[in-house]
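Database export, one record per block. Field names are fixed; values are copied verbatim from the stored entry.
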Amino acid sequence: MVELMRAARLHEVGAKMVIENVERPVAKGTDVVVAVKGCGMVPNLANVLANWETWYPHMPLPPRPAIFGLDPVGVVHEIGRQVMNIKRGDRVYVNPGRSCGACHACNSGTPQKCEYWTLNGYFGYNPNSLEIFKRYPYGGFCEYMLAPQSALVRIPDNLQFQQAARLGYLGTSYAAIKKMGPLAGKSLIVHGATGTLGVGVTLVALALGISRIFAVARGRPLLDRLRLLAPNRVEIFSNRDASTKDWVKSLTGGRGADLMVDTLGAVASLDAFKDAMYGVRRGGRIINIGGTAGELPVDVKWWMDEQMELVGSVWFTTAEGQELADMIQQGVVDISSLQPKTWPLDEINEAISSVASGDGGFTSYLVEI
């Protein structure tokens, strides 16, 4: 007999999500079924649902009716016969990153380079993602979801589900910071520092030993709050009326910072990105994780002469997610400054329209199931 579950589904772009009864998934092979306890709410979700197919037609959304939800957490409810090292009752975060699992990139531990790379419950990166959506049509805004065993990050007992739903942004921050190399004695520009990704980068970089952070954003109140995380290591700057490059260089004897992470979203200013980028010293590394879109004019001779490294970093691997969860468990990464704001599944549409109502990156938004 077919068992049903409740799910929030989007039937067409621009419409509201509808709570419906749909068929509950069944675990087979190396897949598991997770009983969802909550799902992180992406602050940019309303923009994605309304504008993504216009902005980026080559990056498909799941076929409608679709169950969205990027950052699910819950309990393993059922396992396929070929599942190993996972058991019923395990508390898990479900990494939405999906790939083919069999190409050279996947076998090398870099699934983001796979031609099928997809963020399940959110969007894909090329037309191959439609095949992934067929196999895994469940995001986190439902009672039960199907996922490959390779996507599961075990949540330690001292990490609540409300906190664990933030692992997507924290994991993205952690993966970018790993690409920086050793942090001891280094300085870092965090561009867009008070947003969800920016706060994540700041927390993780501080935990992993960065010596100095130049936190750049527009609004001063949240910058002041960010500085309190480590007053002796975090310098703050509002770029509303002045140049980030000039500010950073004035504090570094004209040299600039060693590293930079840009965390701004899709509609942010590329002029601000470029200005901050020129605040990085000769031989420095600039990593983009925010998703700002458009053409960025860069003097390629500066790039060559100054030996600059420009790196794009998308999401994180399940292994990196587990490393981060373990560091949170041991208190290496302290996320106590992040406060959850929650809605029940029945209020999914209110949640989507209200995610900007918190304290910037210090608020974690989620729907509880």
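Remark 1: The longest strand covers residues 31-40.
Remark 2: The two ends are 24 Å apart (CA to CA).
End of record.
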